Amino acid sequence: MMRARRPGTPSDGPAVLVVGGGFAGISALPVLARSAARVTLVDRHVYSTFQPLLYQVATAGLTGADVAYPLWSATGRQGASFRKGELAGLDLGRRVARLDSGEELGYDYLIIATGVSAAFFGVAGAAEHSLSLYTRRDAITLRNRLMAALERRNEGLAGPELDVTIVGGGATGVELAGTLAELRNMALPTVFPEVDRSLFRVRLIEMGPALLEPYHDRLRQYTRQQLVNRGVEVLLNTAIKEVRARSVLLADGSEHRSDITVWAAGVSGPDAGWMSGLPRGKGGRIEVTADLQVSGQDRVFAVGDVAISRQDPVAQLAQPAIQQGRHAAEQVVRRIAGQPTRPFRYHDKGIMATIGRRSAVVELRGGLRLRGTVAWFAWLGLHLIYLLGNRNRVVTLVNLAWRYLTWSRGGGVIVGDDVPGKG
Hints:
five-stranded parallel sheet; FAD/NAD(P)-binding domain; 2 domains; disordered N terminus
């Protein structure tokens, strides 16, 4: 094991360690760059993943590279250092973080932004027999599984039926269900001409009474109708008792065939050893105070999906993570300057989700609601703005535009991108 050391450049400033290169961690870097701190970003991957477009990777509309941005570029531009590694332990007393390699990094201030993992809520077989859609590896695994299933049926190597079940009626479940339905309805006759579309079924199961629960009722109803129009079987007020290898068993005792089951029903805090000394709140997430400092800890902040505040909980979305990352960094800068911290206040800019071609829902702060084509273009434009890297923006725009224009001719389905995902 390496001796603990202070990360970053050889200056005399305090050492700030940011663990996690997602929305929250990346957003902290520009703020910290304006201080005298020595900043190091740690992540188990060498890239940051743009999670809102993972469903496009899973349905062969984008490649894994299109939603990945190199972290050494992000850190280099902000004068920070990058360390590849997974957090394995925290010595909060000594202010040392230990990586899975055995390397130890000392810190004066720590920002935890590791993200979370899928929450299966105790449903039997869910972890073993369903696929998640939270990481780049998840998306590539799902895409390869889907494409392989279609190829086998196209070649007559498997029975003609193909059932895909998506559990969870939030944005991820809705976007995946809508895109799968359009893949079946529009691209399948050209790409997989021997597959019987009528036997390719897409089912979306939601335990609650409506899809997209945070949205206005009119937008929820619109979303459901759009999915039904695309041939998605939508089951509301439906709980799952068990996920099996080739089926899902519902709480009412009925069983539905499911060749591929995707779990999009929620997330929870990471089940990792380094969490043992930290206070846990709802969903196993790290409990923080109003200023995003970890409850009972000094100089340790938690932000993004992994954090939860009793006083002012926010949704596990990109915008809250971005704003929390910036705020935590600002509080570190204030602490370095000997100033008191300030409470976090989320500035709600609205929420949006896409359902399919020329169909999306947008609800902005102040009550403005959009749906249909206008909402779809608004969704596309915002995602391109927040996507990291000019190359990714251009490639994503080209791929999505090509998919939009050529679905019915089999275009927009990327094949040959079969390199296994690393996360």
